[in-house]
Design a protein that fits this description.
This protein starts with 5 loop residues before the first helix and ends with a helix. It has two domains: 54 residues, no CATH class; 141 residues, no CATH class. The chain is built from five helices and nine strands, in the order ααβαββββββαββα. Helix 1 crosses helix 5. The protein is of the alpha+beta class and 209 residues long.
């Protein structure tokens, strides 16, 4: 068996790191893993700058600075399924006019919602300005209100609460995950099994040369 040259060593290193990451193989440069740990579901998001700044001070995202490619800032956004609002510390990003901002947990980043449906979003804006576009949250609020009504049913003149599946576990088809020019977070789960097999074959070939 011959010794590995620098190119082969680099490939082997990448393969080893990818296998170690498992299902979170990082292909997107905007991916911020630490942001996932800060994510929490909230009933509503701030409606103006003052309430946004108050929530930001309480969450104190500055303690995570240096953990990702940019400083982490407070966000309160919709999720990709529009069935919950979440607050999270994540690097801010530019959102194009006509689009709402969302936080993609699997992708570990803030990005544009996949449908161009924000009439009030008449210009490009920073994701930390999402509070200016309350219509982006309206669909979530309507859906959560509908779920609350459906979870209560009258029985003999009384209201009986029935358990329902947690929000975020909706079985409907997931929306597209590709955004802008990034590779996209949905790629992670779709290719991980194939990648693992390919990487093992690559390691075998390298060692055998």
């Amino acid at each position: 068996m011959s010794s590995l040259n620098s190119h082969q060593t680099l490939l082997l290193l990448i393969a080893t790191m990818s296998l170690a990451e498992g299902s979170d193989i990082v292909l997107d440069p905007e991916y911020c893993g630490i942001s996932k740990k800060t994510r929490s579901t909230v009933k509503t998001c701030p409606v103006d700058e003052a309430s946004w700044l108050k929530a930001a001070n309480q969450m104190d995202c500055s303690k995570y600075d240096g953990k990702c490619s940019g400083n982490l800032k407070y966000h309160c956004l919709i999720n990709p399924w529009q069935n919950e609002t979440v607050q999270v510390c994540a690097p801010p990003t530019r959102i194009r006019s006509g689009y709402c901002a969302e936080y993609n947990t699997r992708g570990g980043k803030v990005q544009e919602f996949y449908i161009n449906n924000c009439k009030a979003c008449s210009r490009d804006y920073q994701s930390t300005e999402a509070y200016k576009y309350q219509e982006c949250y309206s669909q979530v609020y309507k859906q959560t209100h509908r779920q609350t009504l459906q979870s209560t049913q009258p029985t003999n003149g009384h209201l009986t609460k029935y358990p329902q599946s947690p929000m975020g576990e909706r079985k409907a088809k997931s929306p597209p995950m590709l955004r802008n020019t990034s590779i996209g977070s949905n790629v992670h789960s779709q290719v991980v099994n194939v990648c693992a097999a390919c990487i093992l074959q690559l390691i075998t070939k390298i060692i055998g040369t």
